[in-house]
Structure formats: C-alpha cells, structure tokens
Amino acid sequence: MSWSMVMEHLFMVLLAVLFTIALGVPLGVCAYCFKPLRRVVLWSVEILQTIPAMALLGIIMVFLGAGKATVVIGLLLYALMPVVQNTCLGLTEVDPGVREVARGMGMMRFYRLLHVEMPIAIPYIFTGIRIAVVISVGVAVFATFVGGGGIGRAIYQAIRVHDVPTIISSTFTLMLMAIGLDTVMALAEKRLYSRFSPAEK
Question: CA–CA separation, 38 vs 25, rounded Å?
Fold first, then answer.
C-alpha cells in the first residue's frame, strides 16, 4: 500500500461527500416542504441503501464505464439516505412556536425556511453528513473493482497473493481514516449543537 493510494481513497470519499451534500440537502428540503413527495423521496433513498455496494457500482459502470466517476456517483447514491433523512428530520423538529413567531413577523415561507428553520436544522444535517462520510470510507474499498483505485486496490492485490501484513495494514489505515474523520466531525457537531440548539441558549 502506498501513500498515493491513501490520498486517492480520501479524494474519492471527500468528492463524493461534497456531491452528496449538494444533492441530499435540497432533496431533504423538498421532502420537508412538499408532503406528497416526502414518502417517495425518503423511500427512494432507503431503497438505494439496500442495494449491495458492488452491485450498485456495477450497474453504474455499465452506463459510465470504469473509472473514478463511477465510484463517486456510487458513493453519492449510497450515502444519500442519512443526509436526506436528517435534513428532513431537522426541519420537521423545529419548534412550532419559532415558526409562529416568524410568521407573526411577516416572514414569507421561503425566507422563513432559509433564515430561521435551516439554521436550527444545521446540527441535524451535519450529523447526516458525518454518517455519510463514514459510510463512504468503507464503501470506497470496492472502487478497485470498477477502476477507481484507492486502498481497495491494495487489499485486493494482497488477498490474491495471500499477503496478510498488507491486508492488516490497509484495514488499519481504513479504520484510522474513518475514526479520524468521525472524531473531527464529532467535535464540530458538538459545537454546532451548542451554538444552534435552542435548549442551549
């Protein structure tokens, strides 16, 4: 396993998470704002989560071919559920009294959503992003089977030649990556809850 494989793995994960945020947060907002769509949106992301990672990447590869684009899209789809669900949940959990005050001040729905409800929901949304990051670190191991590379390539090559030390070191690196990212995000999450949670004020 080389340092370039580690950076390649991390790059795919972070890029996928950025796209997941860009798609998942608006979907969560839509699920919250349009109740007839809520069940469809939440059900759809749950279905994506049930598809085995290898199968999902294989389906995408049929249309896009092998490469990092296939991996990033696969990770995006696989990690959507926590971001969409937590965004919708965070907005739903906003205190009705806060909404009433905002309405009483003459705020229109979109302005209220953007300037009142979304800031309160930020800790919930961030929790979903944190879960998505950890999921992506693990699922990205399968990138090697669709031409994506990363740490998964080192593990696959080591399995083929029964190189146990490389398998252990690669697995340990993955664990450190997941724990490290999760720890950093947990600290940030704690700050967000203390800053935005009405109970803390």
Answer: 13
